[in-house]
Amino acid sequence: MIDRTRPLAVFDLDGTLADSSHRQRFLDGKPRDWDAFFAAAPADPPLSEGVTLCRESAQECEVVYLTGRPERCRDDTLAWLAAQGLPDGTVHMRRNDDRRPARLTKLEILRKLARGREIRMLVDDDELVCDAAERAGFRVVRARWTGASEAMKNAQEREGRT
Fold it and tell me: What's residue 22's pLDDT?
């Protein structure tokens, strides 16, 4: 049973919990190979800093996952989270046809979540998402334990893909 009085700790996946650097190569060419990029996600190694913070947060908070991955990746994403032993939590994903920048889609979901619950923190590696969340009054932990590639930044902001 979910305790609706516990605050929420909201975690991004790619670049925060999952090391997606091995699949960046699919975004370097033109056209970008999005199918291959997302198909390779189950092989992402975990990022120990993010995984540790997520597990620690679960002691006081309900963990929620907020990703720019499209809905068609749900089964692989749930399997990956379980394989890493991460806490159970609701996974919010982008609609398959949603190409808005991550800073817009994620902020929209954060605001919905905040209507009924305290959000203790958002943990994300996307600087623009973090900036938007902070401007909206959310506490942000910037996942700076890995470097985002230029291709990933373009995917998040210009192409609305992750």
Answer: 93
**Where do runs of H (alpha helix) occur along the chain?**
25-28, 34-39, 48-57, 74-83, 102-114, 127-135, 150-157
Give 71's DSSP letter.
G
Look at residue 73 and tell me if it is in a domain: yes
Low-confidence stretches of the chain (pLDDT beneath 50): 156
Domain with 136, as residue range(s), is 8-157
Measure the CA angle with vertex 13, ends 54 and 67; round to 5°: 120
What's the CATH number where 17 sits?
3.40.50.1000
Domain count across the chain: 1
CA atoms within 13 A on the CB side of 33: 10
Q: Is residue 2 assigned to a domain?
A: no
**Reported pTM:** 0.88
Helix axis angle, 150-157 to 102-114, nearest 10°: 60
pLDDT for 2? 58
Cα(22)–Cα(24) distance, rounded to whole angstroms?
Answer: 6
For 126, list phi and psi in degrees, rounded to 5. -80, 110
Per-residue pLDDT, 56: 97
